[in-house]
Each structure stands twice: as structure tokens, then as C-alpha cells.
Amino acid sequence: MSLDVRPATAFDDVRALVGPKSPAANVCWCLSYRLPSKVNNELRGPARGEYVAGLVREDPPPGVLAYEGGEPVGWAAVAPRANTSFARNRKIPHVDELPVWSLWCIRVRPGHRKKGISHELIAGAVEFARERGAPAVEAYPLDNRGARVDLTMAYPGLRRNFERAGFVHAADTTSVLAGHPRVLMRLDLR
User: Of the N and C termini of the chain, which has fewer Cβ atoms inside 10 Å?
Assistant: First the structure.
């Protein structure tokens, strides 16, 4: 498998991974942790896609995409924590005052799963953050302890995948998703 992970600067490719089937839908686009909830709730239908179109033109773009043979097959959202709702999240603690980056969503398209793409996305997101001066990257994956996880709710990733990428447990959280606790995992880049 020839996989290439690069910055998410192509709007159509981001839309293929995180855009809803119907442009009028008020879901996803991977905006819920990127925006204050009031703004996220006010962005309706096509305005959500237009907002993301603006993000892919910014520096840094909103994350990374994985390509297999030129086709977009995976997405990872990564940004400075200060630019996300994790800066204010009461359920996910701040370990220290380091200006860390947050990696909070990993998505692999159906038909491309079980090929190691999520591992490549984590590595690509870390490299993306490192190149932009991140001192550390945090993730808030599910600590599912081997239990099955509904794929729709597995977007934060699984603890063991982050451990495999060199992240270490930095703190417990009071956040629970799909019945599984989320843990704060960190990879120091200094």
C-alpha cells in the first residue's frame, strides 16, 4: 500500500472525508471541537462547508489527509489546543501550561479500514504539528480496554493506537464517549 499523508489543503478531499452526504445537513465537518458551541450551533447547512473551505486556505490548514493512490482515504484533525474548545473544556484537564497541539479526530473511509491508515494519520498529524513548532501533541482517545467500539464514536481514536505511536498517558479525564472513558495522551516533541 502506497500511502501519502499531507496537509489538508484540498477542500473537496476534506469534504469527501468529513462532509455530510447532504450539503444542507447540520452535522460533522469536524467543527464541534474547533468552534465555540454557540458558533458551531449557529453554522447551518452549506455555511458549515463554506467555513471549512476557508480553513483549508489558512496556515496552518485544519489537519492532515491520507491518500492511497491519489484518493483521499483518511483524515486527522490537529491544531493548537488554544484554537480549540479543549482550551476551555472542563472534562479534559490541562497537564501544564505548554502550548500543546490537540489531535482529536481520526477518520478512515469505509473500504479502507484495517490497513494501518489510522497509524499513518497519527504519525502524519504529529509531523505536521512538529513542523509548525508544537512542543507536544495531545490526544483524548477512548480507553476501551479491548472492548468493541461503535465506529461512528471511535473518532477520537483508541488508547492503544496512541501508545503504539509513542504517546504516554498524561492524565485521566471525566469525559466519557460511547460508554468508554477518554484519557489524555501526550507525545513530547521537545
Answer: C
